[in-house]
């Protein structure tokens, strides 16, 4: 019998999550029957969306999430022992995945076979060649539709999604303005090719944009929302496109009262679109493109790796204080 | 010499405009020279957008606005005495319009020849067969893109734009939910074919939508913004479309702090687009379609007519307390 450690919600987070909100339990993994596999986590993902989810479920619920895991027991000929999957198994060290979990429609429950990543690290299946990479890829290209010569603004730009958006926007011939929360992050963004990069903690968004974008912003890839967005909208160009990808400022703000300034939306004929990466069915095509760009050196990535399954809450909480550069993952 | 009476801003409005914010002056209209016409106002328009504009210009500025006016003196062969125009002449009884004012690109300065409306009243050139009609026509059809069988929500639905949106949505085979601010307005909306109509002053938007749209809302034509919109967004269907046409709640709210709830925009992959009717170049085609529908009895309209140029401020202020049903105009 395989024993799994599982992080559950001890209480529903209020504001920024704290360690006390999480509790680690042990549980036996149920038997591997016809079509099932048992997997062991190698890397586990922490992502900002988990905060939004955690505030919506009862305490006691296992935390949801994705992991790159290795098949250690198999009754499924398509998934022999030693193969790797991207499993929607939650914050756990071990799990049983029935065959149907690779077929179901619900994105938050569907596991997938990991696309071959060698010689790259498998952890990238949670980052630049995974959900965050595809979010940047589809979100920028299909929602913002940037044209060469246009100006693209990205916030939380040193994160897993933002750092990829910066680079894809440059690949498409755009001028890129990026915001992040430390001077170290800003320095990295300049290495990645951002034309302007600012530390939002030590500058005024309004002043920075007046300086960096007198021509106004055509595409705004928004990971933050709230006041940041209210400050940005007046700097948008007519017919500007806003991809509402994340709103990390609202995930921890329980009244969700931060503004989109709707007179500006109207006056500038802005086009604002919510972006959930699960809408695109050509998922693997996105991953293959990201892998190609990474292998060609056109897209660079960083990871913040926490060692040990017990670090899950710490890694997760770090997202909201900006501890990570690039993708945050936990090595089990 | 022709003398014009002109309403100017005596002070910049704070919150809802008051009579003291306006001042009526007299001024001689300058000489009618080569290519010019002198016009006399027959009907003058008051529209909510004027509040947003008034808060942005210095006091002393003549109020901007559109009027249906008659040419009373002409040095322009295209515009003989007795012809009618939709003039961007502001809140004034008489004005000189140079030939170039019929050609310039700036929508807020361009005058146009009135399309033939007989046997309909000329005042409709400011309403259902004018800017508000075209706003409803293009905004609903090109921004919301409603499909037959979908559910459309409209607020400020008894106004010039809203009442037209209700009817076009019904013509396109949609289910329509409408909100307005009095029981009399609600009764009229039901006459116009709204499947559900509510008085937002005596009901809860959230409760009404739970009842009327368990299938969720595909198209939201928003004239109000602010809290109304924050209450609506959770009731939107995935891939719902929001046309941000007006935000009357924000025109009088000087901090513009009312929310769009961006986690919802993301989660539901909403598509929110600002709508300024001046973006559509096939303007006359819109007017001709509206006229046809009115003549066929497919689109009905109401007007609230104030008698006398001196009533301009009163008519305008009435927009923000919901005094008017349908289009508010002033008969000079």
UniProtKB/TrEMBL annotation, chains A, B:
EC number: 1.3.1.48, 1.3.1.74
GO molecular function per UniProt: 15-oxoprostaglandin 13-reductase [NAD(P)+] activity; 2-alkenal reductase [NAD(P)H] activity
Keyword terms: Acetylation, Cytoplasm, Fatty acid metabolism, Hydroxylation, Lipid metabolism, NADP, Oxidoreductase, Phosphoprotein, Prostaglandin metabolism
Gene Ontology CC terms, in alphabetical order: cytoplasm
Ranges of residues in domain Enoyl reductase (ER): 15-330
Xref: Gene3D superfamilies: Medium-chain alcohol dehydrogenases, catalytic domain, NAD(P)-binding Rossmann-like Domain
Enzyme class name: oxidoreductase
CDD domains assigned: leukotriene_B4_DH_like
Subcellular location(s) per record: Cytoplasm
InterPro entries the record matches: ADH-like_C, ADH_N_2, ER, GroES-like_sf, MDR_fam, NAD(P)-bd_dom_sf, PTGR1
Catalytic reactions of this protein: octanal + NADP(+) = (2E)-octenal + NADPH + H(+); decanal + NADP(+) = (2E)-decenal + NADPH + H(+); 6-trans-leukotriene B4 + NADP(+) = 12-oxo-(5S)-hydroxy-(6E,8E,10E,14Z)-eicosatetraenoate + NADPH + H(+); leukotriene B4 + NADP(+) = 12-oxo-leukotriene B4 + NADPH + H(+)
Top-level taxon in the UniProt lineage: Eukaryota
GO BP term, example: prostaglandin metabolic process
SMART domains named among the record's database cross-references: PKS_ER
Protein's UniProt keywords contain Cell division: no
Family to which this protein belongs: Belongs to the NADP-dependent oxidoreductase L4BD family.
Binding partners and assembly: Monomer or homodimer.
Protein name: Prostaglandin reductase 1
Species of provenance: Penaeus vannamei (Whiteleg shrimp)
């Amino acid at each position: 019998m395989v024993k799994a450690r599982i992080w559950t919600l001890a209480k529903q987070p209020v504001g920024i999550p704290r360690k006390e909100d999480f509790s680690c339990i042990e549980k036996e993994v149920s038997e591997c029957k016809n079509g099932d596999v048992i997997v062991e986590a190698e890397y586990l993902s922490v992502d900002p969306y988990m905060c939004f989810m955690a505030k919506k479920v009862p305490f006691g619920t296992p935390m949801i999430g994705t992991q790159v895991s290795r098949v250690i027991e198999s009754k499924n000929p398509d998934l022999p022992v030693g193969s790797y999957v991207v499993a929607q198994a939650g914050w756990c060290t071990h799990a049983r995945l029935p065959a149907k979990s690779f077929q179901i429609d619900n994105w938050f429950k569907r596991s997938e076979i990991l696309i071959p990543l060698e010689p790259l690290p498998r952890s990238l299946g949670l980052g630049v060649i995974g959900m965050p990479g595809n979010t940047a890829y589809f979100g920028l290209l299909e929602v913002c539709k940037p044209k060469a010569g246009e100006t693209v603004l990205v916030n939380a730009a040193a994160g897993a999604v933002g750092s990829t958006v910066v680079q894809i926007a440059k690949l498409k011939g755009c001028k890129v303005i990026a915001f992040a929360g430390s001077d170290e992050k800003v320095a990295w963004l300049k290495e990645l090719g951002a034309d302007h990069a600012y530390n939002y903690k030590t500058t005024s968004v309004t002043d920075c944009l007046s300086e960096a974008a007198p021509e106004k912003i055509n595409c705004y890839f928004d990971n933050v929302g709230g006041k940041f967005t209210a400050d940005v909208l007046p700097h948008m160009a007519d017919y500007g496109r806003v991809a509402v990808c994340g709103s990390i400022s609202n995930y921890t703000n329980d009244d969700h009262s931060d503004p989109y300034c709707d007179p500006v939306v109207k006056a500038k004929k802005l086009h604002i679109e919510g972006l959930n990466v699960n809408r695109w069915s050509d998922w693997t095509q996105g991953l293959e493109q990201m892998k190609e760009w990474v292998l060609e050196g056109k897209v660079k990535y960083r990871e913040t790796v926490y060692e040990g399954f017990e670090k899950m809450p710490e890694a997760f909480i770090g997202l909201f204080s900006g501890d990570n550069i690039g993708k945050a993952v936990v090595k089990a």
